[in-house]
């Protein structure tokens, strides 16, 4: 699962060395948005190119339009530029980054300087960062991040009744700001959900799972293996809220009561909704841990030998439609399983040797640059995979189904509706050598996650395993060497072809 390090809350597409490359690809949205048709001020917007807005989607709060409309407009003025003065030469992203250095008071003052600054300083991600950084989880969402900040810090100030943040600005054009709104309000296109090419299995034996999927490192969707879970019948909103009471769960960079998180998820409309992703849920609420059990296929979990020193390995995951995890590889070279209890999830997976389009990992794998939101990736990069020789594995995983995610596979997940799931990462003998190799890399202290002792995890795990299963590592290494040697041998048909080629040359 995602490490905390990868959960960045500022709107940054990439590190500096790949920023220009990724932005040039992302700017492809401009051509799509040029065809967007606006009627008169205040009327509904219509998006072409096969996109449709969610039923309850509002028009852009401040009237921002895509830049393509500026070139088709008889007006020669973009109020974005006139209101910024000398700062108009900066990109919108850089303007937002600079404003992100300011506090709430300075943003409020700057909003009175011009209409342009009003729009920029009311950009919701700026206020989201202020809430998450300054208020931790001690807030109740009020429909927008700015109103949430004001209501929490200045409870006597009645921001709701004075129409705060509702001014619409004419002739303001910005692809960057418009895309943020668009990604928050778009429905998933039907064509993004059509492909379902994963292998589905029901009632297979553990031996068949290991030989056909775990050892060859291939994904599979398993049906019927969690039908006995009490969680499938019990885990609705009311039950979870009552059971958790005043306990706080990990939601991105903050801790929140489950009741407050659901209040947030009911109201929020943003491109990267906060995701409840808690690794200690079973310790906090033991009954939750007792109402599910590890499916029979994944019960060899060798990190368990470390006891309390094992890295984080299991999470409860809750999120509204549109929430999810952008492309990543699971930590510590582990494999994983993910079981949907309520709702449904769209999965896109690429094998270890295929980097997804729009994704730029650093050479050491410590950082990954990718589009800001999942919808943005679908809009700008998903179509390219249709022509790839190695197409991604895709599926929609529904309640009661479990997906096996092999080690090293890139994967993206988006909730199609409010969803509750359990996921666990694990190490089996099939993957043990990969994990040991990962844990002893030179930069392991940067790559290893889920534990406070990153440096010594390799020695601890290897020594503990060898004490419990002496000689097993050597056996696995010999088996792996034999497999590599076998793979290098020419097949029967290759041998026949070579012999014919030699005979042809001799006779010639």
TrEMBL record:
Belongs to the JARID1 histone demethylase family. Residues 283-443 form the JmjC domain. Pfam families: Cupin_8 (PF13621), F-box-like (PF12937). Keywords: Iron, Metal-binding, Nucleus, Oxidoreductase. It is found in: Nucleus. The keyword Kinase does not apply. Gene3D superfamilies: 1.20.1280.50, Cupin. Its cofactor is Fe(2+). The keyword Protein biosynthesis does not apply. Its main location: nucleus. This is JmjC domain-containing protein. One of its GO terms (molecular function) is metal ion binding. SUPFAM superfamilies: Clavaminate synthase-like, F-box domain. One of its GO terms (cellular component) is nucleus. It comes from Cannabis sativa.
């Amino acid at each position: 699962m995602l490490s905390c390090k990868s959960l960045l809350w500022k709107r940054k597409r990439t590190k500096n060395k790949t920023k220009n490359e990724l932005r040039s690809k992302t700017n492809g949205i401009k051509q799509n948005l040029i065809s967007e048709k606006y009627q008169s001020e205040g009327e509904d917007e219509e998006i072409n190119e096969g996109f449709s807005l969610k039923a309850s989607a509002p028009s852009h709060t401040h009237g921002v339009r895509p830049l393509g409309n500026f070139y088709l407009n008889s007006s020669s003025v973009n109020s974005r530029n006139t209101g910024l003065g000398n700062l108009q030469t900066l990109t919108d992203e850089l303007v937002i980054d600079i404003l992100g250095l300011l506090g709430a008071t300075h943003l409020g003052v700057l909003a009175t300087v011009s209409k342009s600054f009003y729009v920029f300083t009311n950009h919701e991600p700026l206020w989201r960062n202020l809430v998450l950084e300054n208020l931790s989880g001690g807030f109740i969402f009020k429909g927008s991040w700015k109103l949430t900040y004001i209501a929490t810090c200045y409870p006597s100030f009645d921001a709701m009744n004075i129409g705060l943040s509702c001014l619409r600005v004419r002739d303001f054009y910005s692809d960057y700001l418009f895309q943020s709104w668009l990604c928050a309000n778009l429905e998933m296109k039907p064509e993004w959900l059509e492909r379902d090419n994963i292998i589905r299995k029901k009632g297979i034996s553990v031996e068949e799972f290991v030989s056909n999927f775990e050892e060859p490192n291939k994904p599979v969707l398993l049906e019927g293996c969690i039908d006995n879970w009490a969680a499938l019948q019990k885990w609705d909103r009311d039950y979870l809220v009552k059971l958790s009471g005043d306990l706080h769960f990990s939601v991105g960079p903050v801790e929140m009561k489950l009741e407050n998180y659901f209040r947030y998820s009911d109201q929020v409309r943003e491109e990267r909704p906060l995701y409840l992703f808690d690794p200690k849920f079973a310790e906090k609420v033991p009954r939750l841990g007792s109402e599910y059990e590890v499916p029979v296929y994944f019960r060899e979990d060798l990190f368990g030998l470390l006891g309390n020193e094992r890295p984080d390995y299991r999470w409860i995951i809750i999120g509204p439609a549109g929430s999810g995890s952008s492309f990543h590889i699971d930590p510590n070279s582990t494999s994983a399983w993910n079981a949907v209890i309520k709702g449904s999830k769209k999965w896109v997976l690429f094998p270890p040797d295929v980097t997804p389009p729009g994704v730029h990992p650093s050479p050491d794998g410590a950082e990954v640059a990718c589009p800001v939101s999942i919808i943005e990736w679908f809009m700008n990069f998903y179509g390219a995979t249709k022509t790839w020789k190695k197409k991604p594995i895709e599926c929609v995983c529904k309640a009661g189904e479990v997906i096996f995610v092999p080690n090293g596979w890139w994967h993206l997940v988006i909730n199609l509706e409010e969803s509750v799931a359990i996921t666990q990462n694990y190490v089996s003998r099939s993957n043990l050598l990969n994990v040991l190799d990962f844990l002893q890399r030179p930069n392991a202290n940067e790559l290893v996650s889920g534990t406070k002792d990153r440096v010594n995890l390799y020695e601890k795990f290897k020594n503990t395993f060898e004490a419990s299963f002496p000689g097993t590592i050597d056996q696995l290494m010999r088996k792996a060497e034999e497999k590599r040697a076998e793979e290098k041998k020419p097949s029967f048909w290759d041998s026949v072809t070579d012999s014919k080629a030699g005979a042809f040359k001799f006779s010639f």
